[in-house]
Amino acid sequence: MLTAWNRFRFDRLSDLPWLAAPIRFSRCVFNDTSQDKKIKVETFTPPNSPEPIGPYSHIAKVGSFITIGGTAGVDPSTGLLAGSDVESQTTRILETFETMLEFVNSDLGHVVHVNVFLKDMKDFEAMNRAYSARMGSHRPARTCFSVHELPKPGVLLTMNLTAVTVVSSDDK
Questions:
Q1: Which of 62, 91, 93, 97 has a 20 to 30 A CA-CA distance from 116?
Q2: Alpha carbon of 126 to those of 85, 86, 88, 98, 158: distances in Å?
Q3: How far apart are CA 11 and CA 144, in angstroms?
């Protein structure tokens, strides 16, 4: 019987006529040759950061690799938005990131990538002004998405990021 899977099965890369360039495959290995070491994922919600609004931690860390989940411009001391404009919310998000990164031995200068989720692309320039002011000359990779809705009323944007520690785990 000919199924959809069988019709689209290719045995060799040369069977893919639209493939013009060769593909390189790489494999990520997560085990250590010494039997006593295992990869450990640590999760944190540091003090002086907003309470998560769902069942998650703000930070996940593996070795010197750090991810911080979606963060809104909420003042952790009051639980309220930092302001009703995108610049004040952007500034608050980056201040919160500084606090979180410091907790795991990093800083904004060690950010690798930032995702920005804007409710309205008309706020792109205002967000960029606040972002540039806080990030200084460091320009990590960044992706900006327009989103229809965000989970907390009044939130105009959220951001998440990836970073590395200031000192790698191997240097300790």
A1: 62
A2: 9, 7, 10, 20, 14
A3: 38
Among residues 140, 139, 143, the alpha carbon closest in space to that of 112 is found at 140
In the structure encoding, which two tokens stand for residue 127, read together? 């967000």
Q: In what order do the strands lie in the sheet with 157-164?
A: 42-44, 59-62, 65-72, 157-164, 111-118, 141-146
